[in-house]
Design goal:
Protein name: PKP2 protein
Keywords: Cell adhesion, Cell junction, Repeat
Family: Belongs to the beta-catenin family.
Shape: elongated
GO cellular component, one term: nucleus
Helix content: 55-70%
Main location: other
Strand content: under 5%
Number of helices: 17
Largest sheet: none
Number of strands: 0
Length: about 300
């Protein structure tokens, strides 16, 4: 577990180690089958898998990269200019939706297991069944890592989480835990998932009211709560930017007073959250059909 956080070279060596990833997955599968998701060894295994999934898309060996990305459309570097919060432009998003998804192998080996639906379902199962905060955080964090990129692999993982494995209910539960880093990681995962336009209606329907409910009434004091608040605003921005219906859902969940209060902070305690809330408000105002409702 310690070695897996030793940097890119350490991750590379461990990913290439014959049988290591397979053994970790095998152990965790056994722990879930035996209804023992809370033992320390399971936590260690999931933390290692979490670390090995970090920057996976960037660090994939050439042989895997070619087979997965062979059909990838060329996206010009100009289209990758980050917008607010580093979101990709709509043009890039639309091109991403058009990409053919990588085909899954029925019996993945080694590094292939890291993005396979079998392991994605294991993470979601641990999120639902484990009561260990480190195990929950590592499972959420692994999914966050796998959905962080811009290519077909992260997009396929996001689709599996939301549509194929019905992962949103388990993630939603993590929004309401008392452990701040678990909550922060759950929000960060939702932030990644919400970038995919084809998943936004599902996410908004199941998660948007919960995101509004955990927004603080004013600017948060601690760094971790500040980051979580900024991430919530970022996720709401993604969900409402192109959907007047989702913006109305935010309004009916009484989100507007909270977002206004966060945006009006003029101190430097949590400028990141205030800026995020301000951009969200600006985006909400672009739905002209809702102006009268906003004013009320």
């Amino acid at each position: 577990r310690n070695m897996s956080s030793a940097g890119p070279e350490g991750r590379k060596k461990m990913r290439e180690c014959d049988g290591l990833i397979d053994s970790l997955v095998y152990y965790v599968q056994g722990a879930i089958a035996d209804h023992e998701p809370n033992d320390k060894a399971t936590e260690n295994c999931v933390c290692i898998l979490h670390n090995l999934s970090y920057q996976l898309e960037i660090e994939l060996p050439e042989s895997y990269a070619q087979s997965i990305y062979m059909q990838r459309r060329n996206i010009s570097s100009n289209d990758k200019t980050p917008g607010c919060f580093g979101t990709r432009s709509r043009k890039v998003k639309e091109k991403q939706q058009d990409m053919p998804l990588p085909e899954e192998k029925s019996n993945p080996r080694g590094i292939e297991s890291l993005w396979h639906s079998t392991l994605i379902r294991i993470y979601l199962s641990l999120i639902a069944k484990s009561t260990r905060n480190y195990t929950q955080e590592a499972s959420l964090g692994a999914l966050q890592n796998l959905t962080a990129g811009t290519g077909p692999m992260p997009f396929a993982v996001a689709q599996t989480v939301v549509q194929k494995a019905n992962g949103l209910p388990s993630i939603r539960t993590m929004l309401h835990v008392s452990h701040p880093t678990v909550k922060k990681t759950a929000v960060s995962l939702l932030r990644n998932l919400s970038r995919n336009t084809s998943l936004q209606s599902d996410i908004a329907r199941e998660i948007l009211p919960d995101l509004v409910s955990i927004l603080p009434d004013s600017v948060p004091g601690s760094d971790i709560v500040c980051e979580t608040t900024a991430s919530i605003c970022y996720t709401l921005y993604n969900l409402t930017q192109s959907s007047s219906q989702n913006a109305r859902l935010l309004l009916s969940a009484d989100g507007l007073p909270k977002i206004i209060a966060i945006s009006m902070n003029d101190s430097n305690l949590c400028s990141k959250a205030s800026r995020a809330a301000s951009v969200l408000l600006y985006s909400l105002w672009s739905h002209t059909d809702l102006h009268s409702a906003y004013k009320k």
